[in-house]
Amino acid sequence: MKQLVKTLILGGNGFIGRNLAQKLLQDPDFAVTCFDRIDPPNKDNRITYISGDFFDIQLLESLVDEYDVIYHAISTLTVGNSSANYMNGYTGDFVQSVRLCDYIQKTGKKLIFLSSGGTVYGNHEKMPVTEKDYCQPINHYGTVKRCIENVMETFHVQNDAKMIVARIANPYGPGQDYRKGVGVIDAAIKNAINHTPMTIWGDGNIIRDYIYIEDTCAMLRALAKYDGSDTIFNLSSGEGHSINEILKMVKSRYPELEVVYTPGRSVDLKEIVLDNHKIRSIYNRPLISLKDGIDKYIDYIVSE
Known about the structure:
The protein is an alpha/beta fold. The protein is built from nine helices and 13 strands. The strands form four sheets. It has a seven-stranded parallel sheet with strand order 3-2-1-4-5-6-11, with helices on both faces. Helix 3 (82-107) links the parallel strand 4 and strand 5 (110-116).
């Protein structure tokens, strides 16, 4: 009988964590446990749920012992709040992630860290950026992510640790909540449906790489089975679209959407598009286009 891959998702009740758990369950090779501060209101009986404090290192170490693959999807920061709350990121997220890495490299488990492809690279003239391009984040959210990446790379070089960095672009889709500080597509759709104004920071011309959450999680699942030598992967569509393009797509369904433009923020890059050739070498199924993804997400929200 084939042995199951026992998988732990730290931050399993978040937007990516919940979707990742469902994607893993589509593969009979995986057994899934979700860890978060509290249990979700609606549990899936195929998933084991554990509630606790990520910053309790003894609890964290006891959990790691039981699993083969650990996804690290916990962050107390967002791009929007990182200017005010950055110290929590450095003294909390970063330090505890170092402790987690230290324990994982001792046990020989596999760690997949959900980093931010949209922020760790900083400003670049040439697009798309590859995993070999330099990183110079312009906000604390990206800097904390990059600091954790650096620690993982050091453990990999010195101890041959099994650690993978997944630099995710801008995921969107079911389960996202823009009120938590991220998700322009989610915000545009829900404001349109609710007939409330959509606020945009800047002129709407900043360009991002948007990837549907289902594709994101399929790529993350592929990394769990990956046994090659690469340690950093961009998870993206490989295409750039402006916020104004997104608004146009949403307005094709909801032409009455009202948009309010406000001054731009210093924490936002003008453009970031990620080269995805490396991840596509291990996950090559067709990706959902932005237009189809927006339509699919609208239909999902309406049905719910």
